[in-house]
Structures are given as C-alpha cells and as structure tokens.
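## Example record

The block below lists the input lines for one assembly entry, exactly as stored, with component labels intact.
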Amino acid sequence: MKIKITTKELTSDFAKEVKERSGIDVKKCYQCGKCTAGCPVAYEMDYMPNQIIRFVQIGARKQALTSRTIWLCASCITCTTRCPKEVKIAELMDVLREMALEEGVANPMEKDITTFHEAFLNSVKKHGRISECGMIMEYKRKRPKAALKSALQDLSDGSHLMLKGKLSLAPHSIKGKDSIKRIFEKLG
Amino acid sequence: MSEETKKTKIGYYPGCAITKCSTSEEYGTSVLGVSRVIGPELVEIDDWNCCGASSGHATNHKLSTALSVRNISLAEKDGYDEVLAPCPMCSQRLIVSQDDVEKDEKLREEVEDAIEMPISNNVKVSNYLEIVKNYSMDEIAEKQKKKPEGLKVASYYGCLLVRPPKILKFDDPEDPKTMDEIVTAIGAEAVDWEFKTSCCGGGFTLSRTDVVVKLTNDILEGAADAGANAIAVACPMCHANLDMKQNNIEKETGRRFNIPIVYISELIGLALGLNPKDLGMDKHFIDTGSVINAFSNIEK
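Predicted structure tokens for the full assembly:
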C-alpha cells in the first residue's frame, strides 16, 4: 500500500517525545520487518508494525496515532522478543495508544476495543477487582451493534457459564476499594 | 513471621479470572487442590486487587503499574519472599511493573504516592510452572496414584509466560520446555508442535472475537496435526479462548476439533488421584471425559 505523507504533516520531535515518555528509541530500528513477519494480527492491521515505527521515526504523528494498528496489537510481545535491535515495539504500541486517547484521536473503527478497555477499568475502579458480569454488561450496553452480532453465541456461552456457576452477578469487591479509587484519582 | 513459616508459605495472588464464580475458576480450584496434597502451602494475599491486565497497560502505564505494585507491596507487608500468580497476565504484569519501578525512580515515587505504601521490591513473583518445577517434581513422583494411557498432550504456553524474556527470564521464549517436562513426568506424551508460544488473541475475546477465532483455529489445527488429543495450558485467557471458541470455529468453518483444553494443574491433580469434579473438570465447554478416562491406577 502506498502511503502519501506531505512534509507539512511531519512533526520533527515526535520520536523524541516518545522516547521521553517511554525510554523507547525508535531510531535504532533499521526496518528489517521482523516484527511484522511474526505479528499474529498483522493481517487485520491498516499499517504494518514496522510502518508504525517508521511513522514515529519520520514524525508522522497523525498517521501513527490514528492508526487501527495500535489498537489491534494484541500485546503478545513476539515483536519485542525477536527484534534484532532491541526496540520495544509492543511497548511502543502502549505509548501510542495512551497518546491517542489523551488527544482524543483513537481510530473510531476500533471503538469496540477502546470501549472494552474502558469497561474493564471502570469495573476495577469501582470494585478493586473485575466483576465479569458488570464489565460485560457495560461493554454490551455501550456497543449495541457488536452486542447484537454476537447475541446468540453470547446467550449460549453465557448460559453455560451461569449453569456451571462461573459467572457471578454479584461483584467481588475488596475492602480497600477506596484506596483503589484514590489510585484512579491520582493516575487515572 | 518466623523464618520457618517464611520458607514454606508462598503468597497466593489468584487474580480475578480464577477466583470462585469466575470464568476460569477451575484453574484456581485445581492449583489449590494440588497444593494441599503436595505443597507448597499457598496463603492468599490479603485484599489483593486486579493488576489492570491488558486494558491497564494498553491505555495508562502509570495506572497499570500502580495497580500491579499495590499487590507486591501488600505481599511484602504480609512478609512473603515469593508470590505465586497462576494467571500469566497477572504474573507478567506484576514482574514487568516491579522492573519498571526498579529502573525509574520518578515512577516509583509517583506509584508509592498513589498506592500510599512503600515498595522495597524484595518479593519474587513466580508463575505456576516455576512453582511446580521448583517445589513439586519429587512430590509428584512420590504421591502419584494414577497414570495416563495414550494421552498425547500439546503443551501450550501462549505469550505471557515467556515474553518479554529479558524481564521474565523464564524458559526459552521460542521453545519452552517446562510444561512438557511436567506432562512427561506424569506419564503422558508431550507432542512436538509449532504453536507453543503463538498468540490466542488474549483479551480480544469480546471486542474482536473474529481475531480470536482465527488465531485459536490455527493453534487447534497445529495441535491436531501433531496428533495431540489434549492441549495443556497454564493461562485462563488461553483456556477460555481455546475451550469456548471451538463452538464458534465449528459454526464458521464446519470443523469440530473437540480437543479438551486442560489446565496443567488439572493433569497433575488427576495423576495424584484427585476427584475430577474437585478439580473443576466438569466446568469446561469441551468435555474432558477422554482425558479423565485416560488415567488409571498405578499397580504397585
């Protein structure tokens, strides 16, 4: 795929900004493509993992932060493990996701994924632990289209889990849930 | 805590997915059941919280680090030198967060301020395979009551037990052997296969089911091609995806694998002669009867 980026769009200090936030030095990457070769989700991505690194190298901020790729990364860390230059690619995806959320530019095509993360952390914030039922309900409520698509399968899987006593409606709350709330207030 | 108790007791951090009434409770049930027979004694860390899992580190590094480190701090307060986190998502998050605060003094200060506790980082966090290998191999040999016949197991490690290798320092990240050694020790055959550390899609179960269905299909096919009649796992996410998604795969491709996905702790439990029900083996999506029935009493 040919990608057109004008020099006007480039931000010269993007790589520096990423390095300051995370310690990850993308300049080390010589574009061998090993990360992309081993990525299990590359087939679904709009840009290959090595292209995302290239975006950061040249300062194509918008292309990196609005990509679907950063959300589709499953954090399996195969890329980081195999990188001959020891670039922490999976960890780079974390920083880019964080920046995309802060700037409100996360790709809307992967809203199911960002909403899931939101629902997951809301549950932790509320109870200190995951309330699987509550988290799933929040996710499904906020993503009705996705919920409808998987409704039949969910019903069958959900009833199996319920029957086996593996899905509890009551949340597991911890004693120190106020201390968890304070962690979220300070760092959330 | 006396020196004596310190040596024998290990702090237990179950994590959300494997506690009672959760989707992977049989993992917790079997880990605890096995430890009651062969040790080491596991004592739950008081008031532990969720490590933040993938949603934490994918969206907020500091928050994710603080959530994980709070548990380390609680374990230190309880006097443990070692903590078992059977869920690899948890063990990986705890270990990586320890490493992050160790290397970044400013982050450590922010995290200590947020969790309102100090952290000295003297606790070793272990995954379940490490605990079995380091404490229980002799005990298994000593107390084994049943042996499997014709059980061919594909040991599936997934991602988070072995990656990132520089920080986790556990086994070979491309061809780990620890689980295979346990499988062989109880008398099953560990098949050689290509998908030991391939990703199952992890936390995309709900948000990108299509990705999980594709990746689990590849893994199940790999196991079937290698002649495995069961897949052993040590991760609740790997288990949920491989066990539950076989129904989705059948709907989409018409192929029914029907491969039982068993926790390594369940296999050890069966070898020790524990009741399959007490190990939670009736709670799977894919029937585990063929695995249970492969075990019979060892004639002495």
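Chain A touches chain B through 61 residues (CB under 8 Å). Chain A is about 60% helix and 0% strand.
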